[in-house]
Amino acid sequence: MRDEIEQARAVWQRGREVVAVGRSRSAGGLLLRALVPRTALALLRKRGGDGVRRRARDVAALFADIEGCTRLCEDLPARDMEGVIESYFSAYLDAVRSVGGEVTEIMGDGLLALFEGPGLGENVRAAFDAAVEIQAQTRTLNRRRRARGPITVNIGLNAGRALVGLTCLRGRSGERCVYGARGPVTNVAARLCELARGGQILTTRAVADLLPTGPRVRGLGPQSLRNVGRPVEVVEVLPGRALRPGASALPGVDRGR
Q: Taking the model in full, what pTM does it have?
């Protein structure tokens, strides 16, 4: 028990130190703000060291992945491939942040974004808007590299309750803290992205029904997702405009009712 108390104190103190550096205008503070998701820094500023603890929250998760990246890596020099990822993912970062989300992980040719607003419906709308904008940005960037072939990005969306916060690994070599979400919400989003092909945006029927006026969707029926125990009712979000506040969605198509 004493060890657990000391560990908790160490985590709390580390949180205070991170907040202090993040607030500073030093080179370290600027670097920290570039490396650590804004949501994580905001959580630390609000709750101090206690902010490092994971908490159950209603979130929306968006996975985006470049299709056929293995082939692209074989066809392009490493520096060119890195340039593709940086240019496209920079545009995706703007798309996510423009609706209040944050990119929390970049995994090679994919990224994870979380939307942590006050309500689940609001988070779903923000994630949907970000997905639509990501595909719009992809089309814009593809026009600039027409001679080198288009990039295709697949997206998986899911929403629900997840444990969100910092995971801190502490070993003999030091410590490493990572901000993110854990639970079925992110797992299913990742599997939906894995299932998508040709630039699809896939989500579940339950998530699509959280939108106040649904986007155009096409039911794909129950799908078995890797490492997910039960089949999931999957829908494809068809191309359309974003659900900005006060905007009307396109009429639903094939709602599967």
A: 0.76
